[in-house]
Write a structure and sequence with these properties.
Blueprint (H helix, E strand, L loop, with lengths): L4 E6 L5 H16 L3 E6 L10 E2 L4 E8 L7 H7 L2 E2 L3 E9 L7 H11 L2 E10 L15 H18 L30 E2 L8 H5 L5 E2 L2 E5 L9 H5 L5 E2 L3 H13 L7 E4 L10
Parallel strand pairs: 1-2, 1-4, 3-5, 4-6, 6-7
Antiparallel strand pairs: 7-12, 8-11, 9-10
Helix pairs in contact: 1-4
Length: about 270
């Protein structure tokens, strides 16, 4: 099939997932004159938006793994995207611990909405809360692997005429999906806060109010660290005893360097190796 349009649909609070999808998209458009668009589902206003896609399009879906699951906010927004036998590449980023059921859940979401998952990638990225974990990843070697993977999928799809027939993508994970209750770490504003409102505008969950941006509504906060990432004054941070205890615990779980994992759907091509 020849792809007329490519969409990068991502939930990416700290930017890592977005950068991975952009690299894949760049590889794709290097050889094709396809139109490429970005759909930034990190923005709160996309909660009610609807998106429709056709058979000659390709959608990259990207999200970080939160406790081995697709973040609920991202799951709702991905569910607003409707395909028509539209091929989809799934990307999950995780902070070198584990991604557990995330790819499987993402596959199920897009399948229910008319997409045909053809390939998937689990990419190690710098941890969004504890930055010393997987610091600097994806590194140059990782980016090279991501580039090569996108090229292989591109060539394989060239040999597929009917995307809706015979492509099955098997992924690791369990059903029912693992339970995730969130983490008790909430960023707070320090003395450097000038109440500019950038954090309130950018918060994916609407947990920060323009009237009082120094305060976070804990019941809504999903600990995605978007506010920390976008603050121009570097005034917001996560810290305290719970943060220190969490870091000590997860550091032990992340000592081994994880490799990225790539998967291709059966029926995509017989001799594709990823």
């Amino acid at each position: 099939m020849k792809t007329a349009k490519i969409s990068l649909a991502f939930f990416s609070p700290t930017g890592s997932t977005k950068r991975v999808l952009e690299r894949m998209g760049k590889r794709w458009t290097e050889d094709y004159e396809a139109v490429m668009q970005e759909i930034n589902l990190t923005k709160l206003e996309t909660e009610q938006e609807k998106f429709l896609f056709g058979e000659q399009e390709l959608v990259f879906f990207g999200t970080p793994s939160f406790g081995g699951r697709v973040p609920q906010v991202a799951a709702r927004r991905f569910s607003n995207m409707k395909g028509s036998n539209t091929p989809a590449v799934l990307v999950v980023t995780y902070g070198n611990r584990a991604y557990e059921d995330t790819l499987l859940e993402l596959r199920d979401i897009v399948r229910r909405n008319g997409f045909v998952p053809v390939a998937a990638a689990a990419v190690v990225a710098e941890h969004s809360i504890f930055h010393e974990i997987a610091k600097g990843r994806p590194n140059d070697n990782d980016r090279s692997e991501i580039w090569d993977f996108a090229g292989k999928i591109q060539k394989a799809l060239d040999h597929i005429e009917n995307i809706g027939s015979g492509i099955t993508l098997s992924l690791p994970g369990n059903k029912p999906y693992r339970e995730y209750k969130g983490v008790p770490i909430r960023p707070k504003a320090g003395k450097a806060c000038i109440e500019c409102g950038v954090c309130a505008r950018e918060c994916p969950a609407g947990a920060i109010y323009y009237e009082n941006p120094g305060k976070t509504e804990e019941a809504r906060c999903i600990s995605c660290m978007r506010c920390v990432h976008v603050c121009p004054q570097h005034a917001r941070e996560a810290g305290g005893l719970i943060f220190q205890m969490g870091y000590k615990k997860i550091k032990k779980q992340c000592e081994a360097r994880r490799k990225m994992k790539f998967s291709a759907g059966r029926g995509l091509t017989e001799n594709l190796t990823v």
